């Protein structure tokens, strides 16, 4: 979540280095698909967790929307990965997993909601940057188009997160 951009940059850096194996698409496009897939899995997990552990109805509803939308987005990423013969990661990054564990320690408190919202704000801003970069510089037209199509959905999520943040009691913002 918060570390998605860092993870994406690390994946991109590794993808650009000499690997000795040919990829089905451009290394940057492959890395983008992998990072987005991990991001989707992290958002699905975070959204499900919010539905169980948030105290605010706004946060619980936002979590529900994240699960729904990121599940649909990820189906598209998986289909694109299969079509382009890109091996996608099987799990979230250790940092993504650890961040959710840290947030979960505050389950069923306003502090949980606050931490969850801040993590989602950061994650969605970073995801928008990643989508914009791929749409502008990706090599494969289908991957660029997928990034363009995902952007308004992720932007809507960010809007929802920020709306919830504005409705938090002042000491919890």
UniProtKB/TrEMBL annotation:
InterPro entries xrefs: DUF4142 (IPR025419)
Entry keywords, A to Z: Signal
Segment forming the signal sequence: 1-24
Pfam families reported for this sequence: DUF4142
Organism this protein belongs to: Streptomyces mobaraensis (strain ATCC 29032 / DSM 40847 / JCM 4168 / NBRC 13819 / NCIMB 11159 / IPCR 16-22)
DUF4142 domain location: 29-163
Name of the featured protein: DUF4142 domain-containing protein
């Amino acid at each position: 979540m918060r570390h998605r951009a860092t993870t994406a940059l690390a994946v991109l850096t590794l993808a650009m280095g000499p690997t000795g194996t040919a990829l089905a698409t451009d290394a940057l496009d492959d890395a983008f698909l992998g990072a987005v897939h991990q991001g989707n899995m992290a958002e699905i997990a975070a959204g499900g967790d919010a539905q169980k552990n948030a105290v605010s109805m706004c946060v619980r509803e936002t979590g529900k929307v994240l699960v729904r939308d990121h599940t649909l987005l990820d189906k598209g990423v998986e289909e694109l990965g299969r079509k382009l013969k890109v091996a996608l990661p099987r799990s979230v990054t250790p940092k993504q997993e650890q961040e959710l564990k840290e947030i979960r320690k505050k389950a069923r408190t306003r502090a949980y909601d606050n931490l969850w919202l801040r993590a989602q704000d950061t994650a969605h801003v970073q995801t928008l940057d990643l989508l914009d970069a791929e749409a502008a510089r990706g090599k494969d037209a289908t991957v660029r188009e997928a990034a363009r199509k995902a952007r308004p959905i992720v932007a809507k999520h960010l809007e929802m997160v920020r709306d919830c943040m504005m409705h938090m009691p002042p000491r919890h913002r």
